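Running co-folding for protoporphyrin IX containing FE.
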Amino acid sequence: MTLHNSHEHYTRLRIWDGPTRLFHWSLVVLVGISWFSGKAGIMAVHTASGVAVLTVIVFRLLWGVIGSTTARFSHFVRGPRAVLAYLAGLRQAASSPVPVVGHNPAGGLAVVFMLAALAVQGASGLFANDDIYTKGPLAHLVSEETSNALTSLHKVVFNGLLALIGVHVLANLFYLVAKGENLIMPMITGDKPWPADRAKPPLHFAKPVVAGGAFVLSLLLMGGLLFL
Ligand code: HEM
């Protein structure tokens, strides 16, 4: 069965909640701003966007525990065996015989790596210095050697992050071009085409007020950290 988008045979299934989508696209914008301002040496903007990246990452970590079904780590973090079996199966089927709901096992692994890299990138930036006059907001808490070491880490992890983002975008294009499966639209609209004759999986969607609470908590945690 090919996954073409015929209105007679397909209906829509909501897979991504609003907060997860908002998180994703704000992250793309914030990482872009951080990259540009870091390269251009506009350090006030760089510090602000870095703290903003950390805030949305803290939110996403909370959301991974209390959020909607497809946003939860328990839903998409799988062992190496499941990831390898999934990757092996990719070469065979023209498109997934059963549409995947949420992140597939390989995508889930990429998400964990990206969130971890972004967290280390942002956290190391808090303690970094640029050798001239900019210091990360928490650099005063550590010695100069530690700050220098974390600055090196900040630079190294960035290269890893770029590689991960490159793989991530290429994987999405691979699904689009080679598999005819558009993963990007669902990350925008929240919905994916779903075979009309197939039962819809029971998905729980957390209430927006819970997301609001988690976001306020993330702001408070990050704000509190900056006053250390
Ligand atoms: C700065 C660049 C980017 C970063 C850091 C990034 C990061 C992430 C993260 C962390 C997730 C997991 C979302 C979640 O569960 O919360 C994700 C998912 C996703 N991203 Fe990105 N992303 C970037 C750029 C892009 C771009 C440019 C596209 C479009 C081509 C894209 C398309 C997607 C899609 C479709 C998913 C869901 C994949 C799936 O169905 O499993 N991302 N991204």
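Result summary
Residues 20, 23-24, 27-28, 31, 60, 71, 103, 107, 111, 114-115, 165, 168-169, 172, 183-184, 187 surround protoporphyrin IX containing FE (CB under 6 Å).
Residues 47 and 136 are 7 Å apart (CA to CA).
Job closed.
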